[in-house]
Amino acid sequence: MRKTMFMAASWAVLIRTTSAMAQPSVQQSCDTLRVKAWTTFRSCIERVIARDAKGILVDYYAPFARCRHPYFKKWVGFQVKSTLQGSTCIGPRFTDNGDQTMTDRLTGLVWEKKQNRDGTEDLTNAHDADNGYLWTAGNLRETGSVFTDFLTNLNAGGGFAGSNGWRLPTIVELQTILRDYACSGAGLSPQCDCTSIGCADPAFESDSQFVSYCSATTDLPYGGAVWIVDFLDADVVPFPKTLACSVRAVRGGL
User: Fold this and answer.
1) DSSP H or E stretch at residue 45
2) Cβ neighbours for 47, distance < 8 A, ≥ 6 positions apart
3) Is 70 exceeded by the pLDDT of residue 3?
4) What's 218's DSSP letter?
5) Domain count across the chain
6) Rounded to two decimals, what is the model's pTM?
7) Is residue 194 domain-resident?
8) What is residue 221's predicted lDDT score, i.e. its pLDDT?
9) Cβ neighbours of 98 (radius 10 Å)
10) Strand order in the sheet with 225-230
11) If we measure between CA atoms, which residue out of 159, 164, 133 comes closest to residue 148?
12) Computed from CA positions of residues 173, 178, 179, 182, in that sequence, does the dihedral angle turn out positive or negative?
């Protein structure tokens, strides 16, 4: 056992040493930029959430939008970098995988696509866009139908789209499928508005409800609420865990 661990550690050191001596590939440069951009974006969102946790009054629109906008613009900037040609940083940001999933090449996340947005729930179909689920069964833990029904069904057997790692997105991840818009105002002022009816990114517009989507992120310090994104107006706000919300599963990430 020790010999195996030693050989594995030696191999890892050899790979890292060899990589350090070589020039990064085009894809490695792309991945490095994506990770840096993600780290900055995540830190920005978490600073806003930390203010809320501290009890400081938070504008639930503008600060989050000001985090998202520069992050989304990173992808636009990648497209004009000649050094990234031939990497996955070039081309459309969202790619339909043809198996009812969508890959975001900026975040590395793979999203579940919804279907049958007709205003009628069908709880026998986990992908029905009209379904609402409970985050908790009443004890504020992850015991509601989001986990016992929705995610359980997606991850059963061979999994959905060949994967068993489907989960609820964090509040940082959930915001990445909103529309991009600049924000120089506060709240829903004319200078800080997504300016459309429904604020889901166009890649998700046709299968998104204009309602609250739950994340996996609990609102601190009380624990009785979870952070949600409202896809009607891009509001990001705490929401009672005991109320039903829409969900969209995700896997992967950087």
Assistant:
1) helix 26-53
2) none
3) no
4) E
5) 1
6) 0.90
7) yes
8) 82
9) 7
10) 212-218, 225-230, 236-240
11) 133
12) negative
